[in-house]
Design brief:
Helices cover 69% and strands 3% of the residues. By secondary structure, it is mostly helical.
Amino acid sequence: MRIGELAKRSGFSRDAIRFYERNGLISADTREGENNYKSYPEEAVLTLEVVRDAQAAGVSIGDLSIILSQLAAEDSDSFDGDAFLADKIAEVEDRIAASQRFLETLRVTRKALSIAPLNTQTSHITAR
């Protein structure tokens, strides 16, 4: 598929797709012909979904590149994938825990604001 279709199906801009390609997260084959259009494989859509989820979880492009290249590698003897992934899992779990704590803070604050008298907030402004 060409970049326009990949952009439409993945929800990423063409510039973002080119960025991920430059960083080795996805690849394209150049077609022969006078225009030399790039053709992206079907799995590029799935890879970009993984990229979106990983970035939302705070995983860096560098770490994503390592993960994806190791998954595609035939010889991974020099890379301890289990330890690397265990570290990433721990990092994401820490982010989830922090997000849950902050979410609870937001809920408590919202509840406190909903029951606080509105006059108190405006009386401080008019009293000055």
